[in-house]
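**Backbone shape codes:**
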Amino acid sequence: MSLPTPSMTLYVSNLETKTKKPELHSQLYSLFTPYGRVIDIIAKKHDGGRGQAFVTFDEQAAATSAMRALHGELFYSKELKITYSRNPSNSTIARTNPDASREAAAVRAAKLTVSNAQGEYEQLEKDREAEELKALGGKRNLEDGDQGDGEPAAKRAKGDEADDEEMEIEMDMDDEDAEGSEGKDGKSVVCTNLPPECNEQIMSALYSQYPGFSRAGPLPSSRSAPSSHPAPNPGAKSFLITFETAEQAKGAVSETKAYLMQPGWEMGVSVDQ
């Protein structure tokens, strides 16, 4: 059997195609683990990739031993075909060159999205301030024309300030109520162990690709990370991601579980219940 260039990632084919993906992933892990530490398994089930998988070890010797021992072995009544992968897996790239990994590319894309959004936000703020100044000039002209209506301008201004303060108090109470109730219906996702430079814009860029995304915000200080999450790194941040339905929140969790925002920063993800 002619072999490609040795690789820590093995290409496994001729797999049984009717097995559910979670079961296939679990059985492949059990099959290959005795030969060394398995750091990643990608089992393909979509059209064009059925019956194939990529198994990545943390050492070259372990990958070679597994290939020699398991090639031709029966797995779900079919003979396994195993060879070295022609291309390194994303897990291998992340270990050898973190800047070239898929996660690093996602961070760069998210930062670019945030930068563009920040520019648009600043322009909108400038336009809003210009409109306010224009409206304020018209209001002053109107007040100058109404000085003879019997109500002193100072009294009117004081009344306006009182109304503004009352409105601010009501808005603060609404925000507190929203913060206290958010996430108790299973529609939110708790994300922990995020790098210090991560912010709401980056989390929004990550989760806006999933159906039902509503908003991203910091996890309230009164909340603690779920016990099932990995221990946070020093300086780690936590966020609460809100979706329209509980099913959409569960779908986002399954897609981003153990996501690496940066090498060494495994994100803890779970539905907030």
